[in-house]
Amino acid sequence: AFVEVHVATSIEECERRDRKGLYKLAREGKIKEFTGISDPYDVPQNPELQVETENVDVDSCAHQVLLKLESMGLISG
Q1: Which range of residues forms the domain containing residue 19?
Q2: Which of 59, 61, 67 is nearest to 8 (CA)?
Q3: Residues 8 and 53: beta-carbon distance below 8 Å
Q4: pLDDT, tens digit, for every residue of 11-49?
Q5: What is the DSSP-derived secondary structure letter of residue 39?
């Protein structure tokens, strides 16, 4: 089974979380074709689940995914 999960996070938050400094390098032009910076990011049109990750802890996000998989009958609770 394929389940599309959109992990929704602003570009600003992605940059804040970027431990490797890839967004900074992309903004400096040192990384070409970087999604969200020099290449477009296409938001999924009909994901089975959209998880907003800003101001939400990782456990809550993971719980949302597990609940969705359970509701789809892909895992048991």
Answers
A1: 5-71
A2: 61
A3: yes
A4: 999 999 999 999 999 999 999 999 999 999 999 999 999
A5: B
Tokens (6 digits) for 71? 């509701």
CATH number at residue 38: 3.40.50.300
On whether residue 77 sits in a domain, the answer given is no
What domain count does the chain have?
1
Residue 76 lies in a domain: no
Among 44, 14, 43, which residue's Cα sits nearest to residue 26? 14
pLDDT at 77 over 90: no
Alpha helices in 1-77 (DSSP H): 11-17, 22-27, 58-71
